[in-house]
Amino acid sequence: MEQFSLFGWTSLDDKVRRAIERLKAFEPPEGYYLAFSGGKDSQCIYHLATEAGVKFDAHYNLTTVDPPELVYFIRENYPDVIVDRPQKTMWQLIVENGCPPTRILRYCCRELKERGGEGRVTVTGVRWAESIRRAKTRGLAEFMGKSVKDMVLFNDNNEMRQMMENCQKKGKFVLNPIIDWTEGDVWEYIRSRGLKYCRLYDEGEKRIGCIGCPMSGPQRMADDFQRWPKYRANYIRAFDRMLQRRKKRGKPEIWASAEEVMHWWIYGSDKGHKAVLEGQQNLF
Which fold has domain 2-192? Predict the structure, then answer.
């Protein structure tokens, strides 16, 4: 497959070569920290790093709300990937924070998904084509500091390499070698290498993430809980413990029951559910 770019027609082979060159150019002495999720994009960076012959150790941050199919897929096909378990589960975080994670309050990502890689060069499968926001804010290489203001975007040039070498120990450097790949590029690469992939894609999933992720929207959340009812039950139990703790601490009684929390969590932004919208306004 060939695609037209500002620099002419670009084939997947060209993009593969470019990604491999990027991986070779910025390889640190200790090797890369490769952020592996088990999804199609992280599969690409894993196998590109293998093709490039660079040193790396792949890490999978277990969130405790991962689809079982994904966990089994990684275990069976990528036994060398290091599984990093969190200090606290999603259920514990919900109780401690006093509310479910939301689009605004994304403590789950910080505690469960964005762990590891400090002081190292981290490789991710982030791509511009995934969202408009990523196209505007993400770059080939980034310095991730303590705040968004510390994020620096660079082009693929010698100056960036020098900056990475000088600042590497001050934070987390992120290299996104397939930043300019399309979804079509990703699937063509996977099929051209004969790679197995998580069966959830064949069952209609476009992106594989945490079960019940609020970023996915009400319909996707509802579908998740219908498909994985045991996880829904776990959330309900966590909400019940959360409400008990809120009561002991004298927090406002926004919800009457764990089921009401679930209803608010899924449909809180839906104008057709005014009863829970009021609770959402009180919370924030």
Answer: Rossmann fold (3.40.50)
